[in-house]
Amino acid sequence: MITNAPGGTQSLISIVVPCYNEEEVISVTIDRLLSVSSGFENCRTEIICVDDGSQDRTLQILEGLAEKHDAVRVLSFARNFGHQIAVTAGIDAAVGDAVVLIDADLQDPPEVIPEMIAKWREGFDVVYGTRSEREGESAFKLSTARAFYRVLNGLSEVPIPLDTGDFRLMSRPVVDTLKSMPERDRFVRGMVSWVGFEQTAIEYRRAKRHAGVSKYPLRKMIMFAADGIISFSTVPLRLAITLGVLFAFFAVLGIFYALFMRIFTDNFVEGWTALMIAVLLIGGVQLVCLGILGEYTGKIYREVKRRPLYIVQKRIGFEPHVTAPRP
Ligand code: UDP
Ligand code: MG
């Protein structure tokens, strides 16, 4: 008998694992998750692996695992849609009373999940993992990530916890709220903060990747950071206005100065240096502001197209009735 109440006789925990080219680690990860989940008290578990259009053998390995273990279910995308979309698809497909998001590379230790469940049973709706330490990451990644979380928090209208990735547990009400949010650009950790409810943190040490390489090269990291900031803040737009006003102010001062010199003195400004500086500076500022505007307009364009967020090619191990469409 499954009840929806946390602490009820038996609850269902859905663990969502986004996987992109993770052939080297995925079976170890699923084994660890299965063995940890066998120790959950009064809980059944489903493990939803979302294959994000992997080009390696990830999908075949997942299919094998789904055949062997009842708890393992697989969603396979028609192409690579990105980490945040993969997580979204997993959340959409999950039927558990609580949903746990975890990376496929064992950087988030599955052993922390029982602590998260305990907090959930105490009544928290979101239990997120905060990285107290990160092993095996380059100094560059550590410092850029640190800066990113601080800038994001400074700009965002909702506080987003520092140094916190997607490793978290969410209760059913939070999951249902997330599912009702239709935006195309999914910055899941920000969306979860926006939702509210009772949230708490658990500290953990972020291990280094068990095997394989990071699927977040610099380019993807920058896009991810820009998405996060633009989806959660309109401060850049306001910054564009501030810059515009500031430079317009200096331009007016310059005009008065030039006129004064021209009319009342013989010593008027001759050089084209000043002219060039002004033209280039203002041109540059205008381009930056246009770019910022363009970013937001692009987002609006993507939203109004209302394309599906992702395309599922294969579903393995799901009950047939669980094809919950997005609103
Ligand atoms: N991932 C994904 N799609 C992508 C990139 C990454 O599903 O396009 C998954 C990846 O398999 C992993 C998680 O997202 O489970 C985090 O990626 P990764 O470990 O490469 O990022 P890092 O920990 O280096 O930031
Ligand atoms: Mg990783």
Detailed description of the structure:
Helix content is 48%, strand content 18%. With 327 residues, it is an alpha/beta fold. Strands 7-5-6-4-1-2-3-8 form an 8-stranded mixed beta sheet, sandwiched between helices. Helix 5 runs parallel beside helix 8 (218-232) and helix 9 (235-264) runs antiparallel to helix 10 (272-305). The longest helix is centred in the last third of the chain and has 34 residues, at 272-305. The model has no long low-confidence stretch (mean pLDDT 83). It binds uridine-5'-diphosphate and magnesium ion (MG). Uridine-5'-diphosphate binds at residues 18-20, 22, 52, 80, 82-83, 86, 103-105, 107, 214-216. The site of uridine-5'-diphosphate has 16 residues, from strand 1 and helix 3.
Tally the beta strands: 8
Number of helices: 10
Low-confidence stretches: none
Largest sheet data: 8 strands, mixed
At a glance:
This protein is α/β, with parallel strands linked by helices and 327 residues long. It is built from 10 helices and 8 strands.
